[in-house]
Amino acid sequence: MTTVRVYVTLKPSLLDSAGRTVAGSLKKLGYTELSEARIGKLIELKLENYDEARVKEMCDKLLANPVIEDYRFEVVKETVGA
Amino acid sequence: MTTVRVYVTLKPSLLDSAGRTVAGSLKKLGYTELSEARIGKLIELKLENYDEARVKEMCDKLLANPVIEDYRFEVVKETVGA
What we know:
homodimer, 82 residues, alpha+beta, Mth169, Chain: A
């Protein structure tokens, strides 16, 4: 069993309104050192067998919207047997 | 300027319905090697000056719901000047 973490983030050129709201709220709470917050997704997949090309396909087809989002992924751990 | 990445995930004991839906869709698309998907948040903060205790406070007060979510964070890079 392989665990893969996929990180999906909005492209840097796009306005992240959820992130802006979070940053505004944190500043109001007194965290004035904050200059920006951006919010993305973290998707953890557990796979019977890992194939990099297939994970890339999953991201392109369903997990990320390549028009507005960037993604990257990493293999966290492989458990033999289980 | 310091960039901090906060990863917020649902506690493992809780049912992640969004993750289940994603896993179901991926299986329907033919990715039968998938056994589970869980969805969390990735929040990237840009801070004028980094203080670990204050970032922990931000997570507890606003970024995560400690009742149902776990979080961890890491410093990505520090840029001097900028």
